[in-house]
Automatic annotation (TrEMBL):
Residues 155-227 form the Alpha-galactosidase NEW3 domain. It holds the Pfam family NPCBM_assoc. It comes from the Bacteria. Residues 1-27 form the signal peptide. Keywords: Membrane, Signal, Transmembrane, Transmembrane helix. This is Alpha-galactosidase NEW3 domain-containing protein. The chain crosses the membrane at residues 248-267. The keyword Signal applies. It comes from Sinanaerobacter chloroacetimidivorans.
Amino acid sequence: MKRFKKILLVLNMTVILLATSMSFVFAAEPGNTTLSSGCTLSPGKTTSVPLFIQNNDSGTHSYNVTAGGMTNNYELYFASGGAPAKAIEVQPGTNAEIDLNISMKGTPSADTDQLTVTTIRDDGKESSVNLTVAVNKDYALSISNMLNKIDTLSGKSTEVTFSVTNNGTKELSSVKLEPELPYKWIAGQSSDTGINLKPGETGTLKMNIDVPSSQTAGNFTAKFAATSNETKSDQISIPVTVKTSSNIAYWMIGALLVIAVFTAVQFKRHGRR
């Protein structure tokens, strides 16, 4: 009998331990986030950092992902399977990858930066990790233009001049302009091969913008960036006002009519002298 009681006592203790263990597993933080400790980022380049979200819960959960707390100015977006995504669904007992794509905007103020990536589960539970970003200043390129706006005619070509500067510590090769123009507009560069720039050196690049004759009058935006074999600058925008030749003809006809009316009135008042 005593032996039987001992067996029951051992069984009860085992059940209690198992129940405690099970409750600990389910009570533990169900979503963990891990990623590489850091990355090196060059101005003009985009770096992708893998982020793994683990769901240790018994049910499927959705996780919203955000990033913040950095000193430098970055362009950030998350992607899952190559497509932009702000949230990701993770099956129970598995992990899923979401990639943080990061690129530099402007001139960095800190050579070594840190940002915080936070996941918020659909039940409100949060998890955060820190990512160290080391800025590579070997290659840096900037672009500027003296024009505040461009005025042109449909069917005509306009030349625009840009200054490009090597802000890095190493030479840049084949520096060219990369335009982003409205539909059917054509851009032609003064140098197809580009120019080379030593550290601290500034060069000049010219581009012809051809506006098709079918373009209606209006206000548009042309965007330009400088690229080299090593890096890419930030993009700048220039407002473009397009006038059509028909509009000018109308203005000329209107001016002639005004002159004719004025002459007729004067002739009627004073008569022929």
